[in-house]
Amino acid sequence: IKLMANLDLKGKRVLIREDLNVPSMDGKITSDVRIRAALPTIKMALEAGAKVIVMSHLGRPTEGEYEEQYSLKPVATYLGELLGKDVPVVRDWKSGVDVAEGELILLENVRFNLGEKGDDEGLSKAYANLCDIYVMDAFGTAHRAQASTHGVARFAPVACAGPLLAAELDALEKSMAKPARPVVAIVGGSKVSSKLTVLDALSKIADTLVVGGGISNTFVAAAGNEVGNSLYEKDLIPEAQRLCKETEVVYATDVRTTKEGFKEWSHSSKTEVRKPSEISADEEIIDYGPETAARVAEIIKNAKTVIWNGPCGVFEFDAFAKGTEVVARAIAASEAFSIAGGGDTLAAIDKFDLADGISYISTGGGAFLEYVEGKKLPAVQVLESRAH
Ligand code: 3PG
Fold first, then answer.
1. Which of 130, 167, 261, 291 is the most exposed place for a label (fewest CB within 10 A)?
2. Top enzyme class of this protein (predicted)?
3. Are 240 and 192 a contacting pair, CB within 8 Å?
4. 150-194: per-residue pLDDT in tens?
């Protein structure tokens, strides 16, 4: 595929699709990872003398409607502070936009446009008309075939990958296609059913497959234990049993439980450490026990490649955070090539301040998982078709 880094951008209208879909609470951005990750690409285009137009989605608004809560204005303000310049947000761009060389504008949330999600041809052409060069840099949205990620790349005069997308694809290929062995994959989190295909795919690549969170609970139940009120998926027990026969799956051999309901959870919630056979019906598993965390840390220590998606417990509360912390610290301390992706995973890395120890932090959630599953990302495929 063509790379933005190899093109002459001077004086060109350069339309960059970023993934600035950042979490926020009460109008305040709570993680700026994606904004910071997009920054080098935007700066590179500005410094090359391009007329820069950035676009992104934010959240999932009702398509075709303007909803203030999904406006990119707070993102523009934040980006403006990082760049030290004004970033105007443009809502009405279809009749053309005027940007000076070395300056930028941000188009308002692309999902306010009718046809965005359906990859509409008319809308794709309207985006394409804005530019001389289209740069796809939004790895986090590369699994979506939408007008701003896919359609526009068919019609733009030139379509290429930005530095962030290129770096993401390089790091994933390094860890997945030709990894240094042993490979340890750690899959945790709460969305059990959506991660089963990921487990299957990873079991073929990884030498050791470690599960945490709700996924580990499903394996604990599959081994015939009572799991009380724990988050797990009963329907997936046969699948978990099959996976255990086919490959070595490491799951909790001791767990931390609480009797408190989730509304009562706090940083000082009362917990107990139990063997899986000792869990009672009124308890809920909320983390690895110390023995399991230490065992997983030891496995990580001997790895040459680590792929991590999903926390091992409810790390948001200090009382339930130890398992995720021990695992995260082991990954950060290890000399293995480590790659981590997914919103909760990034939040855990942030909480324990371990970003410097991870070789590559992916900005992708769904896109990261689809890549890991071996699926083709449509926004990358279209760039391949435009490579010549
Ligand atoms: C994400 O957060 O995973 C991406 O920004 C894609 O968002 P979407 O799932 O709403 O398409």
1. 261
2. transferase
3. no
4. 999 999 999 999 999 999 999 999 888 889 999 999 999 987 887
Calpha distance 20→86 (Å, rounded): 17
Question: Domain residue spans in the chain?
Answer: 4-164+377-385, 181-335
Give pTM, 2 decimals: 0.87
The two tokens of residue 229 are 């009120």
Domain 4-164+377-385, second-level architecture: 3-Layer(aba) Sandwich (3.40)
From 18, 136, 141, 370, the mutation candidate for ligand 1 (largest count of ligand atoms within 8 A of CB) is 141
Q: Are 182 and 207 in contact (CB under 8 A)?
A: yes
28 residue type, one letter: K
Calculate how far, in angstroms, residue 150's C-alpha sits from the geometric centre of ligand 1.
Answer: 15
Read off the pLDDT band of 380 (50, 70, 90): very high
- The two tokens of residue 311 are 């926390």
pLDDT, tens digit (0-9, with 9 covering 90-100), for 186-208: 999 987 887 888 899 899 889 99
Q: Give me 8's structure tokens.
A: 């002459």
Sequence-distant (6+) residues with CB within 8 A of 325 are 315, 348, 352
